[in-house]
Amino acid sequence: AKRMRIPAGTFGERNPSVDHGTLVPLTFVNGEYRGYRLVRCSISGLDPLTHYNFGRCIARAAEKLNRRTVMIASGDLSHKLKEDGPYGFAAEGPQFDRQVTEAMKTGDFLRFLTFDSAFCEAAAECGLRSFMILAGVFDGVAVEPEFLSYEGPFGVGYAVCGFRPKGPDESRRFGPKYLEWKRGAMKKQRENEDVYVRLARLSLETWVRTGRRAALPDDLPPELTGRRAGVFVSLHKDGALRGCIGTILPVQGSVADEIVRNAISAGTHDPRFEPVREEELPDLVYSVDVLGAPAPISSMNELDPRRYGVIVRSGDRCGLLLPDLPGVDTPRRQVEIALRKADIRLDEAFRMERFEAVRHT
Fold this sequence. Notes:
By secondary structure, this protein is of the alpha+beta class. Helices cover 36% and strands 19% of the residues. The protein folds into 3 domains: 20-181, 3-Layer(aba) Sandwich (Protocatechuate 4,5-dioxygenase, Chain B); 193-285, Glycoprotein, Type 4 Pilin (2-Layer Sandwich); 292-361, Dna Ligase, domain 1 (2-Layer Sandwich).
């Protein structure tokens, strides 16, 4: 893993407790076997290819040890299959389970790597990264799938599938195929970007590569150069947030200048992340939210997380959450996140405002 620059090993969190994702399969294993050796590996928030390559590392280690090895990729499927389930229902839940179980049945490991991250978040899945590691264990190997069961009686999907190696198969090296798929997806994304997003991209790329602020293009429309508004610029990489900075009210002379300023800040001054490196630029996906004027509200009942963003204030503390975000389905959830960002407790006195925003992607 170190040679492949994968941040894996015995460092990091060392929690001796065993969670249900490990305990449940081991309960069944212990019913049949004793005296085996066990290595428990965690998933991470890193990208699909890193998980796949970590699986390749596991396979190489097993080969060097020359022992019989079984890889158990444990994790639930969707948690949103039923209205009366513990996490409620989302249409993406059953859709995800159908697609992932079909990939299991056919041995389509590339599918594990190419699920849309927003779709997965809406489906509330938790096992997919385990399956990515499993796919890497079988890198370049033909497999014989044996799909045993699927059920979701309590609103959470459970599937059991086994894979036996059948021998080398160069067509099943999915790392290069994933990179080819990703390049195609990014090319399509770039082709569909509007002028707001193109300006954000130009601004950050120019700053990272030259250390200078980009000059505004001459052909910007009046809606960018002739009005003022608050703007948030968000960056994502491999489906995960990579930076987000914005202004509730305008501080620059135009929307265009606001985008330039906040795109640079999102990539270099978001305290949650290291500054964006030049080699990351091709992998970034941008979105630009242009905010409407905020208006005071007196109750969460006046919020709709799909339509309105929320601002919470208490003293000099302030938190904002944009509208229409994956996984934010209720006003209460929306307010709780905004309060947490502002370090305001739910039982404190606080004021709320709502606003609409136009999102450009």
